[in-house]
Amino acid sequence: MKNLPNIGLPIILMSILLIVFISRSSVNIGYGEAGVLFKTLGGGVEIEKPPKGEGFRIIAPWNRIFIYDVKQQEVLESMQVLSSNGLEISLDVSMLYQPNYDSLGLLHKTKGINYLNTVLLPTVRAVARSVVGRYTPEQLYSTKRDAIQNEIFEETRDNVMSQYIQLNAVLVRDVSLPAAIKQGIERKLVQEQEALEYEFRLVKAEQEAERQRIDAEGKARANRILSASLTDRILQEKGIEATIKLSESPNSKVIVIGAGDNGLPIILNNN
Q1: What total of structural domains would you count in the chain?
Q2: In the structure, what pLDDT confidence band is assigned to residue 186 with cuts at 50, 70 and 90?
Q3: What is the pTM of this model?
């Protein structure tokens, strides 16, 4: 009985060591995550093998697994940039990104788990300043917004691709100009719209005048052709046809044959 305390203490110590061993040797990698193995006693970051996938993993207790979120993620960034004429512009962008899964070990070895703040955000800030500096405030506010967005995306993507980061999209959420500049641009846009509308009305008026001129010329040409074709003989025949039709009418009238010019009939109403 006296030996029981001496036996129980080693068992307790062994149990504690076993618990520590198990806790240090097991890792649960959640959905949309992947792990990079770090071999403490040799080799360092494991880059030759693919990263550890989702699920429960057993490792040597002296090694470590660094877990990365490999799903597409979004980050919002607000920055102050300068236009081509030195005007300060507030730019809000969002980026859709994720680490390159196949190169996760290299990303961890060269950039670390904080790659968003050490690589991606500084790169997009530098690219945005470079891209926006090529345009005027008017272009930023109106016509070139899509072009700016595409240029920021393409240049940032090319820069971070070699650093094992996959950039899926850059979206320009907002471009804010100083109030006075914005109002001036809006006034200019309104004036340009009014000028375009006035020019459109002038073109329409010119087109209508041309249409009327062509119509008048057509009618005049038709009248000349008709006048040239109306000989005395044709007029007499038309007069005879009209006289026959009038004679068949039930209305009361007096028709004097051959009393008019060129022998055409004269119609006298009894009233």
Answers
A1: 4
A2: low
A3: 0.61
